[in-house]
Amino acid sequence: MHYSDFVSRVDNRGKLVVVEFGRDGAVPFEVRRIYFIYGAGPGVSRGFHAHRNLEQLAFTVSGHCRVRLDDGRNSEDVWLNSPSSGLRIEKMVWHEMHDFSEDCVLMVLASDHYDESDYIRDYKEFQTLADC
Ligand code: T46
């Protein structure tokens, strides 16, 4: 499991989280796209795919959700619940997002532009390509 911790400035006015690209190593790739997922709410699940080449870093700006990561051999569930800690979603890792809180805003930094051909949305195909 790979997390990137962002610099967090805390004082009596609240918290300020800094994500600086290409400086502190917290984002281990060049960011070419940012997207947000929100309004998912309880009972909704998303994802269910792997990426052939895309590298991503996901964190919750607010709320929480559970992410299942599966490399074809092992799977692990982790909770995303902090704006100051990003979860690395590496290429060729099957991922699913579950248990969104109603206030969840999931922000994802991605290493490339949107390209549907980069998605593997069939689990059996993923397992074959992951050489399991
Ligand atoms: C991922 C997880 C964490 C676009 O047109 N542009 C975009 O940049 C993205 C991300 C999506 N879309 C379109 C494709 C679909 O028609 O938006 C629609 C919903 O996308 P999708 O069903 O793939 O959403 P999720 O939540 O299942 O997956 C998303 C990302 O697509 C994916 O790359 O890793 O979040």
Structural key phrases:
132 residues; mainly beta; five-stranded antiparallel beta sheet; 1 helix; 12 strands; globular; binds dTDP-4-keto-6-deoxyglucose
Question: How do the strands and helices of this protein lay out in sequence?
Answer:
Layout: E1 3-5, E2 7-11, E3 14-18, E4 33-38, E5 46-51, E6 56-62, E7 65-70, E8 75-80, E9 85-89, E10 94-98, E11 105-110, E12 119-120, H1 123-129
Antiparallel strand pairs: 1-9, 2-3, 4-11, 5-10, 5-12, 6-9, 6-11, 7-8, 7-10
DTDP-4-keto-6-deoxyglucose binds next to strand 4, strand 5 and strand 6.
Task: Characterize this entry briefly.
With 132 residues, this protein is mainly beta. It has one helix at 123-129, and strands at residues 3-5, 7-11, 14-18, 33-38, 46-51, 56-62, 65-70, 75-80, 85-89, 94-98, 105-110, 119-120. It contains 1 helix and 12 strands.
